[in-house]
Specification:
- The chain has helices at 36-45, 53-56, 76-88, 110-117, 119-124, 154-157, 190-196, 199-203, 216-227, 254-267, 290-303, 323-330, 335-343, 354-366, 378-383, 392-403; strands spanning 2-7, 10-15, 21-22, 62-68, 95-101, 126-129, 138-143, 149-153, 161-167, 170-171, 175-176, 230-238, 244-250, 268-269, 274-280, 304-313, 368-372, 387-389, 409-412, 419-420.
- The protein is an alpha/beta fold.
- The longest helix has 14 residues, at 254-267.
- It is built from 16 helices and 20 strands.
- The protein is globular.
- α1 packs parallel to α3 and α13 (335-343) crosses α14.
- It has a 6-stranded parallel beta sheet with strand order 3-19-15-16-17-18, with helices on both faces.
- It is 34% helix and 24% strand.
- The mean pLDDT is 96.
Length: 426
């Protein structure tokens, strides 16, 4: 059989044994009845659990729209113009600020803004990039359920109306992206992000892909969105080509819940026990660095035998994605040392990128990872205790040499888009 794997901005076709098990989200075959623009407009005109945002915007002077940064494939060229038009419908003279939710990521560059939002929006609208390390930009809103301080961007706190846009996908520890996540970690202080992403919460068996029930990370995020007075959201679900297949607008919690139900129904796949699992992080913009690509590795982890080999194919042309993340592995003798160290860290002592290091260490302790990436990432990957391989074909050949010609192979072409049924419940 031939399977196409997204890699950067292209798709790589690989020939695989006919016995290979392919695990895919049903989003690939879902055909919406309307165009992308029609889906978004319809959601804005029929909000869930809320008045239309044009009604909420009446009489408001300062309006802030939280949007996603360069690491998220939110189709803002489609969503934002429609959102802005709806907001200005009854309030054409309002002052709108578009706040780019970088969370703890690096700032979005001008080129990335143009690529994501388009020249017209960048030229004519007011954009501000959130900087989580700038304490002077933050406002204190109380104590999170976890005990951490809630500090978020002052622009959001001082707004007369706070709304957001985003997309919903399975998330490897928050359960799902979208909704409340635009506030925490999106526009939160690094101190708040550190508390929410502490080792105790990351280690919880409730902090897993597709689960919100009892998820301590999600609980903090919901609290943050309520305290920030996030009044309205526009969230979309997308397919493998990053096209909108559904849109959900309205109350920050009710609309998000409906969106999560939709995504869960499409994304759930039955787990397996494979000797070799091949996956990707969905191509650009999600596979620009190793940091982001840990997400898809958790899907492979859920499908691999305890000693199974994971083949990750992510472009990683932007390198590691976090200096602290990189140094943690480079300075450790092995991944077990990283895992043991992080599990001892108290919430108040959480450091940058610790959460990503914790999850990657958990995977590397249990699985050999063969990593297909841009050649520029070779030394970084090897410093981080993974094996660089130039192509998927070479990685598969190497894995079969290790596991034997009868090895059971599974592929997850888009590891970030599936929720794997736990093996224990199969």
């Amino acid at each position: 059989m031939k399977v196409k794997f997204p890699f950067g901005r292209e798709k790589i076709e690989v020939e695989l044994p006919d016995s290979t098990q392919v695990l895919e989200s049903k989003a690939a075959e879902y055909v919406p009845s309307k165009s992308q623009e029609e889906l978004v407009q319809d959601a804005l005109e029929h909000p869930i659990g809320s008045k239309r945002v044009s009604e909420l915007a009446k009489g408001k002077k300062k309006i802030v729209i939280i949007t996603s940064d360069h690491t998220r494939p939110v189709p803002s060229k489609i969503t934002l113009p429609l959102y802005l038009k709806e907001i200005r419908k009854n309030n054409p003279d309002c002052e709108i600020t578009i706040l780019i939710a970088t969370g703890f990521h690096r700032p979005t560059t001008k080129e990335e803004m143009l690529d994501k939002f388009g020249e017209e929006l960048v030229k004519n609208e007011k954009f501000v990039i959130h900087m989580s390390q700038n304490d002077e930009d933050m406002a204190y809103l109380g104590i999170l359920p976890s005990g951490g301080e809630l500090l978020i961007n002052k622009l959001a706190v001082e707004a007369d109306l706070l709304v957001s846009e985003g997309f919903i996908e399975p998330h490897f520890f928050a359960g799902f992206s979208g909704g409340r996540k635009s506030v925490l970690p999106g526009i939160a202080s690094q101190k708040t992000v550190f508390g929410n992403h502490c080792s105790k919460f990351i280690a919880s068996d409730k902090s897993r892909t597709g689960n919100l029930d009892g998820n301590p990370i999600h609980k903090d995020m919901e609290f943050a969105a309520k305290e920030a007075k996030l009044a309205f959201i526009l969230n979309v679900a997308i397919d493998a080509d990053k096209k909108v297949i559904a849109a959900f607008a309205g109350d920050a919690f009710e609309a998000h819940e409906k969106g999560c139900e939709f995504v869960k129904n499409l994304s759930k796949v039955e787990g397996t026990d494979a000797d070799i699992v091949i996956t990707t992080n969905g191509g650009y913009p999600l596979d620009q660095n190793i940091y982001q690509s840990v997400k898809s590795m958790t899907a492979a982890e859920a499908c691999a035998k305890p000693d199974g080999i994971i083949i990750e194919a992510s472009k990683c042309n932007d390198g590691h994605g976090g200096e602290s993340f990189y140094q943690t592995f480079k300075n450790a003798k092995n991944p077990k040392e990283v895992e043991d160290m992080i599990l001892k860290v108290k919430m108040e002592d959480t450091i940058a990128d610790q959460w990503e290091s914790q999850i990657l260490a958990r995977i590397l302790v249990r699985h050999q990872v063969l990593y297909v990436a841009d050649k520029s990432a070779k030394d970084i990957l090897e410093d981080m205790h993974m094996t660089y391989v130039p192509t998927i074909e070479e990685a598969l050949k190497k894995a079969i040499e290790i596991k034997g010609k009868d090895a059971k192979i599974a592929v997850i072409p888009e590891g970030i888009s599936v929720i794997v049924t736990p093996k224990s419940t199969k």
